[in-house]
Amino acid sequence: MKIVITGLVVGLAAGLVGALCGVGGGILMVPAFVLALGMGQKHAVATSLAVVVVTALAGTANHVLRKSDLIDWRLVACTAVGAAVAAWYGTELMRSMSNQQLTRIFGILLILVGARMLMLKTA
Prior knowledge:
Layout: H1 2-21, H2 26-37, H3 41-65, H4 73-96, H5 99-119
Helix pairs in contact: 1-3, 1-4, 2-3
């Protein structure tokens, strides 16, 4: 039961943040699209989300083809449900916001996550 609840909660958070800021490579793609190509934040986020679909499929396919045991499919199922629901509604929220609001949210997220990573003690 813990894996189901954790997966759903993480999925909801990831889906919402992904819909507002882009996911995965969005940390590179969104700023590059905005700064190098002059895209608006909304356009950059939406484009990043579409690219991530292809990237995720390619990476997952490689794991599956190599019969990798690194994917926890039960957790994938639980997390994906929450992420899909939050992403669906998160994109509606994203479209209602200004590019400036989204840029600020994105920047704050990067600062908070980056600061947390810098404070981590790793082995």
